[in-house]
Amino acid sequence: MRIFLLTFLCLNSCTWAQSKAEPSGQTLVFTNVNVVDTRAGRILPGMTVVVRSCRIQGVARVGLIAENHNVRMINAAGEYVMPGLWDMDVRTASTAAAWDEHIIYPLYVANGVTGVRDMGGDPDLLDQRSQRVEDGTLPGPHILVAGPILSGGKSNTQAVALNNPTEAREAVAKLKEHGMNLLTMRSDISRDSYYALADEAARLKIQFAGPVPDSITVAEASAAGQRSIERLSGILLACSSKEDALRQQGSQALANQDVRPHAIVTTLAMATYDPEKAWNLFVQLANNNTWQVPALVWSQTMASMDNTTLLSG
To answer: How far apart are CA 278 and CA 286, in angstroms?
Structure first.
């Protein structure tokens, strides 16, 4: 079954209209189309979808649209439409190896990804690219800029060091002034710096996301206002009946730079899974509106790291 991506067509049509200096109020009418209803998990056959000024105006079995030179009819011939996808963890503007904007962004759109969350890159470069996308001069997805990364390491064009609470507060204020509406962090931030970051972010009304630092529990991160947790970090440990003991074991292994004991903690966390503890945690995450970003490709790769077939292939 082929998927006929409505958002891809709309974005291309809008860009085409702008390049041809056509009126921004052009209306696209898709007829005889199967709509993939992602909320209800069903397919609505034989629908009409109306798009005006690059916005979906209506989805119905029958649509009555007054004819004029700004209306373009497209017979989808029984193909499928679906909402645009988001890739929530990308890095397209690394100063070490930035992707060619004329290659990476059109590829996202061609595969149905109409929005990306760039979680660490040169913010000035990303701002320039994002503006060109919104202007219609660069085909690509909407870009939510969440860089540079806040970390416990050294500062550079892609990372801001948070070595103490004062630096954490200053970094949040500076990035807010720069126009950022989302902050991203690494897992190496200290507990004191994390809480200073969270407090300043709440004061300035700016969201923050990233993996849960090793010094913070998932429950604490949710309560502190972390908007999303990347790669399900800390979730297994938080659902274990032995969370405190395993957390101490993992921290000691990290301090000793010993990978094997730290990896074993994950196995032990799964073996001590506590359904009631997990349920209470999930209720808290839902109540606090703390989202999970599983990063499926990353998780699949990490799960296959010891697969000898993959390694030899």
So the answer is: 12
pTM above 0.90, yes or no: no
Sign of CA dihedral 298, 275, 259, 193: positive
Tell me the pLDDT of the chain (313 aa) as tens digits. Answer: 444 445 444 444 454 334 443 445 678 889 999 999 988 999 999 999 988 877 888 888 876 666 677 888 889 888 998 888 999 988 898 766 678 999 999 999 999 999 999 988 888 888 999 999 999 899 999 999 987 889 887 777 678 889 999 999 999 999 999 888 899 998 889 999 999 999 999 999 999 999 999 889 999 999 999 999 999 999 999 999 999 999 888 888 777 777 777 778 888 999 999 999 999 999 999 999 999 998 877 777 766 766 655 444 4
Q: Give domain status of residue 70, yes or no.
A: yes
| Structure-token match 């000898």, residue found | 308
Q: How far apart are CA 252 and CA 155, in angstroms?
A: 26
* CATH number, domain containing residue 77: 2.30.40.10
Residue 60 lies in a domain: yes
25 falls within a domain:
yes
In a domain, 16, yes or no: yes
Chain centroid to CA 137: 24
What domain range includes position 59?
A: 6-81
